[in-house]
Amino acid sequence: MEIKVVKDIMGANEQIAQKNRQLFDRNQVFVVNVMASPGAGKTSLILETIKRLKGKVKVGVVEGDISSSLDAEAIGKEGVPVVQINTGGECHLDANMTSTALGSLPLEDIRLLLIENVGNLVCPAEFNLGEDLRVLVSSTPEGDDKPFKYPLMFHEADAVLVNKIDLLPYLKFDVDAFANTIRGINQKVKVFPLSCTTGEGVDRWVDWLLGQVKG
Amino acid sequence: MEIKVVKDIMGANEQIAQKNRQLFDRNQVFVVNVMASPGAGKTSLILETIKRLKGKVKVGVVEGDISSSLDAEAIGKEGVPVVQINTGGECHLDANMTSTALGSLPLEDIRLLLIENVGNLVCPAEFNLGEDLRVLVSSTPEGDDKPFKYPLMFHEADAVLVNKIDLLPYLKFDVDAFANTIRGINQKVKVFPLSCTTGEGVDRWVDWLLGQVKG
């Protein structure tokens, strides 16, 4: 019975994800699902991305958190439309929560929607939200062994942003070995080492993202 | 129906947790459930703890990971009994997985059992394994706002180990503010700032743990 329920949940999620997808297509919105461990730097990455896209593309944001609206407040200060989803204990966003949030966003005025998922390297990878791209922010202090332990997330990502490279002098973390491990799991993945603190490498990620949106 | 299934799962988990508890009591084993985000330093903390407890108390370890046995191999080198649980996608340990692992451990020879949970700041807090203590490893690079976003985990912890304090000079992280935030959620919690890299603060945690085991 438990397995059937799980199937029902995933089937229902996929149906709603397809409806989200149709809504995005009708409004010509390109959607990025940003996933990561807690504290890897999802919000900082979104903030740095928004700043660099000003005047180039209209951005909207959905902020997913179990509780609090700290991140939405930080992003609202950048002057972009933002909606906070509080999952109330749930460890991931699903298509239905996303769908509910979309009603509060001016989709017709948005070209790029960044969805910040709940901080979790496991469950978010299982739930399609209707997005175009899945981006994983993986930070250097987490260690370069993470792809071995959380393979699904690394397998599902279209791009892995290796954040906090400013801390590399103080850590045992081999960026090349990390990138090779990821490519062993996922041959199509793009890997962008960067630092949201110093700004190093962020332009390269944003240029690539812009190419994806306009492509 | 979905809610009923969740209740059934939690009820079944609690029953098995009680059986684990009885088994631990019969064998006089003190059990610690170690939880954290991916990469916060659970395995390093367990390794440093084992080293300091040599000759003082007999330790055993259960390693929970979605996949891989990297951590169990590292811990096995310290010469303590260790069992790896691969959850096969599940984002947390539950009482039943723990029960299965216990059959492979010489419980009668162990006085302290350290259980490393799956790296996840959400779901593990919901599943009682039959433990005496819940310990949360929270690392400085994750940021000092985490208690606001993952309140259940901080509420459930008996001790929070603030790991990677060696990185404080390179981060915006206020240890005192962090400790105060945690105490606002959880008045009984013990907070131990430490670094598994430099060893700073680890003795204080291990002394306290030893007091819990022998108390």
Brief summary:
The structure is a homodimer of 215-residue chains. With 215 residues, chain A is of the alpha/beta class.
Describe it.
The structure is a homodimer of 215-residue chains. With 215 residues, chain A is α/β, with parallel strands linked by helices. Chain A has a single domain (2-214), classed as 3-Layer(aba) Sandwich (Rossmann fold). Chain A has helices spanning 2-26, 42-53, 70-76, 95-102, 146-149, 151-156, 175-185, 202-214; strands at residues 30-36, 59-65, 82-86, 112-116, 133-139, 159-163, 190-193. Chain A has a seven-stranded parallel beta sheet, sandwiched between helices. Chain A is globular, with a radius of gyration of 17 Å. The mean pLDDT of chain A is 94.
